[in-house]
Amino acid sequence: MTTTRNFIWAMIATISAFWFAMEPQFFTSNNLFEWRSAMIQYSGILSLILMSITMILAMRLSMVENWLNGMDKAYRIHKWLGISSIALGITHWLWYQIPKWLVMSGILTRPTRQHGLKPAITDFNWEVWVNNLHGFAANIGEWGFYLLLVLLIGSLWATVKYKPFKLSHRLMSVAYLLIAIHSVLLLKHSYWGEPIYYLTLEFVFIGSIAAIYSILGFVGRNNRHSARVVSTRYFPQAETMELVLKPTTAWQGHQAGQFAYLRFGNEEPHPFTMTSSTKKTEIRFLIKALGDFTTGLYDRVKMGDMVTVEGPYGRMNFDLNKPQIWIAGGVGIASFFAILETLAGKTNHPQITLFYCSRGIDNNLADKINSVAYQANVKLTMIDTQHSPRLNTERIINQCGKLADHEIYFCGPEIFSKKLKKELSEHAFDIEKNYHEELFVMR
């Protein structure tokens, strides 16, 4: 993640340098309207470029997943770049509106417009055509911004159900296209033909392709497979369903720790981790009742039903050359089932300790975890947080020894992970290098 953050900051620095080359008077001028003009362009360009990257990340491209080391990482970056682009969009809007409001209130005097300036590198007729579209561009940009702002608030609001959440993301692509048209038409004429101009156009072009790709429903289409429901089982204490699917021959298998999107009937696809061994032809999932879709799913899904499987995604690769500490919170145990089954009968791997932490543990599910852990020669510790203290670093050290000798893999609630990482950093554990987690939060 550090490499990705550095790349994004380097890109922002490059864009800023290109922009500043076109606005050398920015730090020497004392004219508010000159600052306004420059900052409208700067905030708008940065917002548009970050928004373009979020469009690309939403395409679920394998090359992007490989680069970011997992689709979960891509979605985390997608989320925060989206929020950042909206924040810059708000800044852009405020730079445009506040001076105008101050002029209307009589606090500021509107500057005298200069006419007759023509950029030397462009054809006059093209310039006139673009100028005639300024009013149109301003209007669609404003409506696109308002639409995007409403959709962002809706998508981040936890009470919004998954189906409207997915629809809001589809509509975000429409809002992006409106903003892209707005931005291209309202770029300063003095920028035309300069590096900042061509860089902006390149991002708009790629982002627009990604937005249209999403609107047309092409995301994940080439990675979809049909599968039949073989069996289901419900663990009532854990409120978790086991689902077993038999995919078509087009399915090429998966790796331990990967996930797939499942579509039942006309429902929107939802992501779930595959718990079956990588050697088996059937795919198994553990699905906990956590929201409007998963609650009651066990009653809706029957043997013989057809399900669309999209995937596999994820890059939670287990490096078994060092001693391992695996930490599962609740349904996060699903990420470890596949590797446990893959290790069944093997004794030549380094020491592995698995901590399974859950608020209430289903006896049948516990028996299943115990069985696969025993066969894989993995030391298992179950912690029922209803009756026992929560797992902390001190307990891990007491049970496993020196942390620096281990790789730690985590899958569970984000708040649990943050607490653990804070404690681990206090013990000088190299989190960036030796702490691996699945950021399985899609909103």
Secondary structure layout:
Elements: H1 2-22, H2 32-57, H3 62-68, H4 71-104, H5 124-132, H6 134-156, H7 162-185, H8 195-215, E1 224-235, E2 240-247, E3 259-264, E4 270-273, E5 283-288, H9 297-300, E6 306-313, E7 324-329, H10 334-342, E8 352-358, H11 363-375, E9 379-384, H12 393-400, E10 407-411, H13 414-426, H14 431-434, E11 435-437
Parallel strand pairs: 7-8, 7-10, 8-9, 10-11
Antiparallel strand pairs: 1-2, 1-6, 2-5, 3-4, 3-6
Helix pairs in contact: 2-4, 2-7, 2-8, 3-4, 4-6, 6-7, 7-8
Structure description:
This protein has 443 residues and is of the alpha/beta class. The protein is built from 14 helices and eleven strands. The protein starts with a helix and ends in a 6-residue tail after the last strand. Helices cover 49% and strands 16% of the residues. The strands form two sheets. The protein has a six-stranded antiparallel beta sheet, covered by helices on one side. A five-stranded parallel beta sheet has the order 9-8-7-10-11, with helices on both faces. The mean pLDDT is 86.
Q: Label the overall shape.
A: elongated
Query: Proportion of β residues?
Result: 15-25%
The top level CATH class name of the largest domain? Mainly Alpha
Separation, N- and C-terminal Cα atoms: 19 Å
